[in-house]
Design brief:
Helix content: 40-55%
Largest sheet: none
Mean pLDDT: 89
Shape: globular
Strand content: under 5%
Number of helices: 5
Length: 117
């Protein structure tokens, strides 16, 4: 989320082009870390000390980058339907992706629910 809020600024500053490709992060995790539960997240397999450090570090990184961030009450949530929506709407993918990210990470909305999508 934090990187998504800065990527366009960085691309403009470096005269680069963004090629956005929607992906399901859970599928990537499953491919590289098969011990993650099918309905879980990467943090599910972290010990409590690592999980607490990760949460603090995420907030520090957001503050350092000037990005408002809050863990949603529904964390983690299934984002497959949000991904399907992004793919269905089509390119450019970034504007709708920003809307979902902000709804989830800043407005405490469950982007896995159809009424939010």
């Amino acid at each position: 989320f934090i990187a998504s809020q800065k990527v366009e600024e960085i691309a403009q500053r470096t005269n680069s082009r963004i090629i956005a490709k929607p992906v399901l992060l859970g599928a990537i995790y499953k491919a590289v870390q098969p011990q993650i539960p099918i309905n879980g997240s990467a943090s599910d397999v972290m010990n409590q000390t690592k999980k607490a450090y990760f949460a603090r570090d995420l907030h520090r990184m957001a503050e350092h980058r000037g990005v408002k961030l809050m863990y949603p009450d529904c964390y983690p949530t299934k984002t497959l339907d949000a991904l399907r929506c992004i793919i269905t709407v089509g390119e450019p993918y970034i504007p709708l992706s920003h809307r979902f990210y902000k709804a989830y990470w800043q407005q405490n909305m469950d982007v896995g629910k159809s009424d939010v999508i």
